């Protein structure tokens, strides 16, 4: 028999990305004799396997592709492999014997493509051939592993696409394989198509909506012959109707995305199909408890859920994720939409949505009840993870008749542990406003929700609207005579006057709030009343009374293991101490509050403590660091919608500090340090504020910790502090040495893609367009010059 060299097809289109995956396949094939590429339909398993096989061709005597997609009878698997390889031996009892004989005498790479519907037969054949042919390697593609000894499974993920809200520019988009694939395929059907400033946002959104799935992106690209990118994004609500422009040469199940997903669906047992459709009710990732609460019954027992989830994971129809040690599951949007279309009808969908809402309403109530206590960190993490589910639950309350009141209760429960704690003020206002509009009945619930809405509004500095909401809440609370609502309105009224700087008017309201909140047992309200009253009393000059109130507030947090409110007590107490000239205590207290706020993710508290530390530094003559922290504080505050002048006294301190810095540094130096502060990430700003980053940086520059002021004119100019991170500085130094990205990756033991990302960020930070400019900048810094 004449030896065949293989049958790998020639590429008809370019291959985009997947460099890391190709390298990993090469490594695995050198260590394992069976590698199975698994992943959701359309993710590109076949194309990746073919490219990997083509790259490995020289290492084998022959490379064969066996397409099993059209084989429906398991008994024909071995026959199909033999026929593909041209193996014929009439004397053999079965084709497997002939395959064993041929493969045992040569080094072969066998690509078994589309094994999922013939999993058992493929597993038996692969096991037998691998035992008989020691030089055989098998690269399989399947929705799930074959499950035999020695197999190494490699999950293939969708192509990388930009995350939502990530700043975009043309160079950064080129780093994403999903964008590159769309651009290349679009240019093939629409010559001249490129990513421009006008369409870059739409291109990124299109690839996000398609989950980075290569097949979906390629089918979408075909539609760009008739639609603009923006129009295609708008019409993707019914993606299965649109994405039907696949190649007519493809097998039928790949001609449309619907057919591709339906292929997977029909292969499943009934219980797995049922769970798939029910899981589609979750808008994002979810945990096991949620599945058991929402999806069980009518054919799915609670005890079976874990096994069914495991089966869907094994078939690549679910993704498993870990968030802070918690295991969660996620279904790609494409599969979720297919599952929703497979629900039996509107009645089943509403039933699932109601069960989904009930589960997350109970979660919100539990979070609210346990918020003031030692579990705040875990509740913050949990609610942040469940944000999409909470939104979907509240949206159901608005869409479904007679459910708005439950939605209002849910929104109220989330005010403290979710929206105030995370500084999600706009989010909270959005839901409270909608729920209040849908529930106009004069109830205690409405009075409390109006007051919560007013607090969020006032926190953002919208005084007029906040006072209107508060007046309506107070009138309703007085009419109904509810003690809890009256206590809350007293508190928020006192906060409003405090923000306005009228402490003589605010303090009596807050004194009343302290008594009323304590009487009704609202510990969160009591703590806020104590903090605000302490600040107001201190502003009027009674520092002893202020200290007493602050210490009472700290004792309250300690008694209950509470952290979020404690961070605020420490921050406001630090201001009081700073006003009294106790800079050392104020700095220590602000830093403790900053670290607590960082752990909690409370960006508003972080912004405030950065500002307080800047005031202390400015008073101590550390003007440059103070200017940077002041700018970083403002930037973080803007990111959460925090009005810098919400509290009048706070605004006065801010302006006084800014004036002092301008006088000390001069306009030019202040502007320079402000730009540096604007460029700091939140974590970098925190690191500088607690001392480590500033002291390390100054020590490297040979400066004292006390100050990094501009050098006198008669001295040679010193290099400015670098805006680059430590890793970016290392890479910039290697660029200056003339190293390529590949050489840098090798030197630093990181991937080349990571290096490319760092280089992109260095160019953006420095405002440069080439590596030569980076090298020149580094040379200037080395000579002590200014960039």
TrEMBL record:
<feature type="domain" description="HTH luxR-type">
    <location>
        <begin position="717"/>
        <end position="782"/>
    </location>
</feature>
<dbReference type="Pfam" id="PF25872">
    <property type="entry name" value="HTH_77"/>
</dbReference>
<dbReference type="InterPro" id="IPR016032">
    <property type="entry name" value="Sig_transdc_resp-reg_C-effctor"/>
</dbReference>
<dbReference type="InterPro" id="IPR000792">
    <property type="entry name" value="Tscrpt_reg_LuxR_C"/>
</dbReference>
<feature type="compositionally biased region" description="Pro residues">
    <location>
        <begin position="710"/>
        <end position="720"/>
    </location>
</feature>
<dbReference type="Pfam" id="PF00196">
    <property type="entry name" value="GerE"/>
</dbReference>
<dbReference type="InterPro" id="IPR036388">
    <property type="entry name" value="WH-like_DNA-bd_sf"/>
</dbReference>
<dbReference type="InterPro" id="IPR027417">
    <property type="entry name" value="P-loop_NTPase"/>
</dbReference>
<dbReference type="Pfam" id="PF00931">
    <property type="entry name" value="NB-ARC"/>
</dbReference>
<feature type="region of interest" description="Disordered">
    <location>
        <begin position="701"/>
        <end position="725"/>
    </location>
</feature>
<protein>
    <submittedName>
        <fullName>Predicted ATPase</fullName>
    </submittedName>
</protein>
<dbReference type="GO" id="GO:0006355">
    <property type="term" value="P:regulation of DNA-templated transcription"/>
</dbReference>
<dbReference type="GO" id="GO:0003677">
    <property type="term" value="F:DNA binding"/>
</dbReference>
<dbReference type="InterPro" id="IPR058852">
    <property type="entry name" value="HTH_77"/>
</dbReference>
<dbReference type="GO" id="GO:0043531">
    <property type="term" value="F:ADP binding"/>
</dbReference>
<dbReference type="InterPro" id="IPR011990">
    <property type="entry name" value="TPR-like_helical_dom_sf"/>
</dbReference>
<dbReference type="InterPro" id="IPR002182">
    <property type="entry name" value="NB-ARC"/>
</dbReference>
């Amino acid at each position: 028999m004449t030896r065949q060299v293989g049958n790998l097809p020639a590429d008809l289109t370019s291959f985009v990305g997947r460099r890391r995956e190709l390298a990993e396949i090469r490594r695995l094939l050198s260590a394992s004799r069976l590698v199975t590429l698994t992943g959701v339909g359309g993710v590109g398993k076949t194309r990746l396997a073919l490219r990997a096989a083509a790259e490995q061709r020289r290492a084998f005597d022959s490379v064969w592709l066996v397409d099993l997609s059209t084989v429906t009878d398991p008994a024909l698997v071995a026959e199909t492999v033999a026929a593909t390889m041209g193996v014929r031996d009439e004397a053999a009892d079965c084709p497997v014997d002939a395959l064993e004989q041929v493969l045992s005498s040569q080094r072969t790479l066998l690509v078994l493509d589309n094994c999922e519907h013939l999993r058992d037969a493929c597993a038996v054949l692969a096991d037998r051939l691998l035992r008989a042919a020691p030089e055989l390697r098998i690269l399989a593609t399947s929705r799930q592993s074959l499950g035999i000894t020695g197999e190494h499974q490699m999950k293939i993920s969708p192509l990388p696409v930009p995350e939502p809200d990530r700043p975009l520019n043309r160079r950064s988009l080129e780093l994403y394989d999903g964008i590159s694939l769309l651009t290349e395929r679009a240019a093939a059907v629409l010559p001249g198509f490129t990513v421009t400033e006008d369409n870059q946002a739409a291109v990124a959104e299109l690839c996000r909506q398609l989950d980075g799935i290569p097949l979906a992106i390629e089918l979408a690209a075909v539609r760009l012959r008739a639609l603009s990118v923006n129009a295609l994004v708008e019409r993707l609500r019914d993606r299965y109707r649109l994405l039907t422009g696949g190649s007519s040469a493809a097998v039928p199940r790949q001609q449309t995305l619907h057919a591709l997903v339906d292929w997977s669906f029909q292969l499943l047992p009934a219980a797995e199909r049922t769970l798939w459709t029910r899981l589609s009710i979750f808008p994002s990732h979810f945990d096991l408890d949620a599945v058991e609460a929402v999806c069980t019954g009518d054919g799915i027992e609670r005890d079976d859920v874990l096994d069914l989830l495991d089966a869907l994971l094994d078939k690549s129809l679910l993704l498993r994720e870990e968030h802070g040690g918690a295991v969660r599951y996620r279904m790609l949007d494409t599969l979720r939409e297919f599952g929703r279309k497979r629900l039996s009808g509107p009645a089943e969908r509403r039933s699932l949505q109601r069960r989904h809402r009930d589960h997350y309403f109970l979660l919100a109530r539990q979070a609210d009840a346990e918020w003031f206590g030692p579990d705040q960190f875990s509740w913050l993490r949990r609610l942040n993870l469940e944000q999409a589910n909470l939104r979907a639950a509240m949206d159901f309350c608005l869409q479904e008749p007679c459910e708005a009141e439950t939605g209002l209760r849910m929104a109220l429960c989330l005010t403290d542990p979710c929206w105030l704690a995370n500084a999600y003020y706009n989010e909270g206002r959005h839901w409270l406003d909608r729920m209040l509009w849908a529930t106009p009945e004069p109830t205690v619930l409405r009075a409390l929700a109006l007051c919560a809405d007013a607090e969020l509004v006032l926190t953002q500095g919208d005084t007029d609207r906040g006072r209107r909401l508060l007046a309506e809440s107070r009138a309703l609370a007085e009419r109904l005579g509810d003690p809890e609502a009256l206590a809350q309105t007293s508190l928020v009224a006192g906060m409003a006057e405090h923000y306005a700087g009228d402490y003589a008017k605010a303090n009596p309201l807050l004194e009343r709030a302290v008594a009323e909140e304590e009487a009704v047992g609202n510990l969160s309200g009591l703590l806020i009343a104590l903090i605000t009253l302490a600040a107001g009393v201190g502003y009027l000059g009674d520092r002893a009374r202020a200290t007493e109130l602050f210490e009472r507030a700290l004792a309250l947090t300690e008694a209950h293991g509470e952290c979020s409110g404690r961070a605020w007590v420490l921050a406001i107490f630090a201001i009081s101490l700073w006003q009294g000239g106790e800079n050392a205590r104020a700095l220590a207290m602000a830093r403790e509050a900053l670290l607590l706020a960082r752990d909690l993710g409370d960006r508003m508290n972080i912004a405030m403590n950065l500002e307080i530390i800047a005031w202390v530094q400015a008073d101590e003559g550390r003007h440059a660091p103070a200017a940077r922290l002041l700018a970083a504080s403002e930037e973080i505050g803007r990111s959460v919608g925090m009005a810098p002048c919400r509290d009048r006294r706070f605004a006065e301190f801010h302006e006084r500090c800014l004036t002092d810095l301008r006088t000390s540094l001069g306009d030019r130096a202040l502007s320079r340090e402000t730009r540096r502060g604007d460029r700091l990430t939140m974590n970098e700003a925190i690191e500088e504020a607690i001392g480590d980053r500033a002291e390390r940086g100054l020590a490297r520059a040979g400066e004292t910790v006390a100050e990094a002021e501009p050098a006198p004119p008669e001295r040679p100019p010193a290099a400015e502090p670098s805006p680059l991170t430590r890793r970016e500085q290392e890479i910039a130094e290697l660029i200056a040495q003339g190293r390529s990205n590949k050489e840098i990756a090798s030197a630093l033991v990181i991937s080349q893609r990571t290096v490319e990302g760092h280089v992109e960020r260095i160019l953006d930070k420095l405002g440069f367009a080439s590596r030569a400019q980076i090298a020149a900048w580094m040379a200037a810094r080395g000579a002590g010059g200014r960039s």
